[in-house]
Design goal:
It is built from 18 helices and 28 strands. By secondary structure, the protein is an alpha+beta fold. Strands 11-15-16-23-20-19-17-18 form an 8-stranded mixed β-sheet. Strands 1, 2, 3, 7 and 8 form a 5-stranded antiparallel β-sheet that branches. Strands 25-24-26-27-28 form a 5-stranded mixed β-sheet, with helices on both faces. Helix 1 crosses helix 2, helix 3 runs antiparallel to helix 4 and helix 11 packs across helix 12. The longest helix has 22 residues. It binds one RNA strand through strand 7, strand 8, helix 9 and helix 16.
RNA sequence: GCUGGUAUAGCUCAGUUGGUAGAGCAGCGCAUUCGUAAUGCGCAGGUCGUCAGUUCGAGUCUGACUACCAGCUCCA
């Protein structure tokens, strides 16, 4: 690499830099724990990791010792030398060095693969590279081991659990500090913490994975649902509600039982087998079948805010982000193949509108059908091409994600980027030729004959619960006016202003706002502090001056004291802000 | 589910080598009527996650279970 490549702007260099640091980690582990067996240790998005098989378990104290050893290795300025070996010699070398995992990796390499090693001092590792030329190039003070945890060999839950050490490294200490600050910021925004502090929602031991929503959290939920209804009505959707429990036979018909029974909850009613729905679509199919439809009724757009239950593994649960009961903002479109292009594009535009409203950037991923796709190859190829064409013909950029689609079809996923740069998969558009077939859906064509519609399964929020979790972290609890559980709080300075404060609060309430008052005999600074911590968008500080003039002194949570305005002007501007849903 | 860790008041945390619990904030009461992020004083609040065990004695030691945390796996 030439000198001007020595920067993290160059992705290749960054990878080589971090990969080299992971080798330094492995070398340090081998020095301190000679019996440790090496598995793999790649560079990843935020740094690197290395997996080891050791007798003793690593602890944070171990990490400190390893970090010190790594710094020594950096100081030793060991040069990295690459060499290649024929397969048998490579296996022999790794066998001699007692590295069974490396031997397994070599045996699994393709016949014609070049087998290369990197050597630094006494340390040798099987590795394709590339690497830096010297361990001294790694900045010792811009490197940190962040955590240690278990990880399965080759990512397989049936294989042995190894010990993984995560670390990160940069070219400058400032960059490391900035990274660590970002981690701290994420902790500060943790929706589990904010959810409790702002009294939005919580999870209790009594219902792992089953969230409680408190009055203030319900305000946010209801506002999100109102907006969803408003938008879907405008986009020509009808709304339905289908049952949470349906008989087991339905789930055999849909294919969910075959593909998903481990994650479903079952129950018995009058001796018959029933299942709690993990998805809304089968219910949607039955709703479609209530009567015969004409081709003139298509495309038929149907939405459902449906509560689904999925048995997630206990270790996978995480606040509102991963729960066992959640509400999907499902929207199904029944249509003909001629409709497909415009309908898919319409949904893309709809989802775009929703994300923009919250200030999310996003990117799309096209996921093709998985191995266990239930349709034939012709449909697989055809449906994937339809999605691809919509994206290509409309100049949409996307990432290809092979084999990650649903068992009934390919999909376009929306990955949004939040205020501190994390990505979340939320929206989805799934093209499905299978369910209409399985449920024998029909419509009468212009030719008078019966035809089979196709369908789209779509969601924008994905899960309302999870979306609220994401929004909480995105806004750090400071929700835009239209979502804020309390939109304004009236803070009289003394009891003399109590009547005026009550009048102001009543006026705001009449204008449709969620208002609170704080009449406690506390100093104004105390009341303001509390309102700030509750992240209430507007505080109205009212004293003798305001009562005399009929004005209100406005304080915003972000901008502090805004001075006095007339109550009417304030209410008008608030109405505008609420209506436009700006943030 | 797997690996490791954690569990003390509503919240955040102290609690020495085992000798039967403590602070701040929040809550309640009283005083204070104050102009943009914490007024003072007082009161109340915990069978120390649950169940066993060791011990004269367990918040402290052991085991099982539950939940949570960090990852892994999974997320149709």
């Amino acid at each position: 690499m030439s000198d001007n490549n020595y920067t993290f702007e160059n992705e290749e260099y960054k990878k080589a830099y971090r990969h080299t640091t992971s080798h330094i980690l492995a070398q340090a582990v081998k020095r301190l724990y000679p019996d440790a067996r090496l598995a793999i240790g790649p560079a990843i998005a935020d740094g690197f990791y290395y997996d080891f098989d050791t007798a003793e378990t690593f602890t944070p104290e171990t990490l400190d010792a390893l970090e010190a050893e790594m710094k020594k290795i950096i100081k030793e300025k060991l040069s990295l030398e690459r060499f290649e070996l024929p397969r048998e010699d490579a296996i022999q070398l790794m066998t001699e060095r007692e590295e069974p995992y490396k031997v397994e990796l070599i045996r699994d390499l393709p016949e014609d693969a070049v087998i290369s090693f990197y050597k630094q001092g006494e340390f040798v590792d099987l590795c394709a590279g590339p690497h830096l030329d010297n361990t001294g190039r790694v900045k010792a003070n811009a490197m940190k081991l962040t955590s240690c945890t278990g990880a399965y060999w080759r990512g397989d839950a049936n294989k042995k659990m190894l010990q993984r050490i995560y670390g990160t490294c940069f070219m400058k200490k400032d960059e490391l500090d900035e990274y660590l600050a970002r981690i701290e910021e994420a902790k500060r925004r943790d929706h589990r913490k904010l959810g409790r502090e702002l009294e939005l929602f919580a999870l209790y031991d009594e219902g792992p994975g089953f969230p409680f929503f408190f009055p203030k959290g319900m305000v946010i939920r209801n506002e999100l649902e109102s907006y969803w209804r408003e938008l879907h009505q405008e986009c020509g959707y009808q709304e339905i509600k289908t049952p949470i429990i349906l008989n087991e036979e339905l789930w055999h018909r849909s294919g969910h039982w075959d593909h998903y029974k481990e994650n479903m909850y079952f129950t018995k009613i009058d001796g018959e087998d029933y299942a709690v729905k993990p998805m809304n679509c089968p219910g949607g199919m039955l709703a479609y079948k209530r009567r015969m439809w004409s081709y003139k009724d298509l495309p038929m757009r149907v939405g459902e805010l449906g509560l689904v239950h999925r048995h997630e593994l206990s270790g996978a649960l995480h606040g509102l982000m991963r729960v066992r009961a959640f509400t999907q903002d499902d929207a199904h479109i029944f249509m003909t193949e001629e409709h497909a292009h415009d309908e898919i594009l319409g949904v893309i535009q709809k989802i775009d509108r929703i994300y923009k409203l919250f200030g999310f950037e996003y990117h799309m991923e096209l996921s093709t059908c998985p191995e266990d796709f239930i349709g034939d190859d012709k449909v697989r190829e055809y449906s994937e091409r339809i999605l691809k064409d919509v994206l290509d013909k409309n100049g949409k950029e996307y990432v290809l994600n092979p084999g990650d689609g649903a068992f009934y079809g390919p999909k376009i996923d929306f990955h949004l980027v939040d205020a501190i740069g994390r990505t979340w998969q939320c929206g989805t558009i799934q093209l499905d030729f299978q369910m209409p077939e399985r449920f024998d859906l029909e419509y009468t064509g212009a030719d008078g004959a019966k035809h089979r519609p196709i369908m789209l399964h779509t969601a924008a929020y994905g899960s309302i619960e999870r979306f609220i979790g994401i929004l909480t972290e995105h806004f750090a609890g400071a929700f835009p006016l239209w979502l804020a559980p309390v939109q304004a709080i009236v803070l009289p300075i003394t009891d003399r202003s109590r009547d005026y404060a009550e009048t102001v609060a009543a006026r705001l309430k009449d204008a449709g706002f969620r208002v609170e008052t704080d009449f406690r005999s506390e100093k104004i600074g105390y009341k303001i502090r509390e309102a700030q911590m509750q992240k209430i968008p507007y505080m109205l500080v009212l004293g003798d001056k305001e009562a005399e003039t009929g004005m209100v002194t406005v304080r915003t949570r972000a901008g502090g004291d805004q001075g006095a305005v007339s109550l009417n002007v304030f209410i008008d501007s608030l109405k505008q802000e609420k209506k436009t849903r700006v943030y």
